[in-house]
Amino acid sequence: GSVARCVARGPSHSLFSMAALCIGGICIPYTAIVPAVFLFLRWVLAQIGLSTAKEGDTSSTSALGDDGAGRRSLKPRRSKLGKSLSTISTASSCSKTGTDGIVLNIDSTEQWQNRVNSGGPRHTVMKATASWCRPCKEIDPFYQSLAKKYDATFTRIDVDDLDDVAADLSVAMMPTFVVLDRDGKELGRVAGANEGKLEALIQEHCAERVRS
Questions:
Q1: Which of 35, 63, 65, 142 is deepest in the core (most CB within 10 A)?
Q2: Which residues are annotated as catalytic?
Q3: What does the CA dihedral 50, 55, 56, 57 come to, rounded to 10 degrees?
Q4: Whole-angstrom Cα distance, residue 50 to residue 47?
């Protein structure tokens, strides 16, 4: 994709208030490029470790012909939509009472902490954005449509105003979308203005709203 130089004009104290590199649907502040590379390498190493562990489990199970304890292993049943029952259960764990479909702008660290520590009935979806991030603005109408479609609390933070929250969530590029459970534990994330990946992430963890 094209490469653009975005100049941030946020508060001077913010870690993100500086020139940024925008490639396709992602904007990365220059000072965050090294941390972003580190996070990517950590993710790659984690995937390699996970793959190695799965291979070891598969080989041991194949040798025994069962689950290692004399019992035949059963794969999770899948629904007609191709989702395992466990995935459907996770999605159903979101309250189905519906929301008003409004994206909540988080204006302070205290407001964010109260939101994620409230232990409410719904998961929280967070969008990390910035006023100078063009991809963030382009995907915002789609993000708002998801707030009306899926039953979760959709929020939006500006990394220039809440750089401490962005740092706590290891946000290194904009936009970044994070799904958190009722206890504030991260369930998954997507970086970049990709509508398909964003909806797939939310669909995995939250059920659609019940329409009256």
A1: 35
A2: 133, 136
A3: 90
A4: 5
